[in-house]
Write a structure and sequence with these properties.
2 domains; about 60% helix; alpha/beta; Transcription Regulator spoIIAA; rod-shaped; 5-stranded mixed β-sheet
Length: about 190
């Protein structure tokens, strides 16, 4: 009888162990599923966050290099590209790309690059601007650079950068007058 009781107890324990193992396996599986779901959710959150960042970067990029059509005449258009902030090589490439696309889109004969808002013009920035100007000229577009401050003028001279072949004017107003004059127009006061 003792053997039978021991066997029954042992059998009951085995059943209980099997139940506990099944519960443990279920809990482990549930935890793994929850962890996998958390990881999927985090990955989706990161993906969405990356999409938002990329959309914001595109918006900033578009806003940082606007091409503004000022005049559209039968003789061709005038565009202004106001540049604000620092210019690195990546932004310089974007400036050239956007400007050339604007020239095509608006049939621009004259482009005014206004650098009033560019705080520092070093040799890198000047070289990038030179490349952009050359590319625009290859498209048959006249380029006028406006907004050269005293500090920027000194820097360009100190660096020995040759802008003698580039039409430069002190402000945007002068640039607009020159652009219109090159198309055969002039600004006059209305009486």
């Amino acid at each position: 009888m003792s053997n039978t009781a021991d066997e029954q107890t042992l059998q009951a324990l085995r059943c209980r162990v099997a139940e506990l193992e099944a519960l443990l396996e279920g809990a482990t599986r549930s935890e793994q599923e929850q962890r996998a779901e958390r990881e999927r959710s985090e990955a989706e959150g990161l993906r969405l966050q990356q999409e938002v960042i990329e959309a914001q970067q595109r918006a900033i990029q578009e806003l940082s290099t606007p091409v503004i059509p000022i005049v559209d005449t039968p003789r061709g258009g005038v565009l202004v590209m106001p540049l604000i902030g620092s210019i690195d090589s990546l932004r310089a490439k974007d400036i050239m790309r956007v400007l050339l696309a604007g020239i095509n889109q608006h049939r621009a004969r004259v482009v005014i690059l206004d650098i009033t808002g560019v705080p520092i013009v070093d040799s890198g920035v000047a070289n990038h601007l030179n490349k952009t100007i050359k590319a625009a000229r290859l498209k048959g577009t006249q380029v006028i650079v406006t907004g050269i401050t005293e500090a920027v003028a000194e820097t360009i001279v100190d660096l020995g950068i040759d802008w003698s072949g580039i039409q430069t004017l002190g402000d945007l107003h002068g640039g607009l007058r020159a652009a219109l004059a090159s198309l055969g127009y002039r600004i006059t006061a209305m009486s």
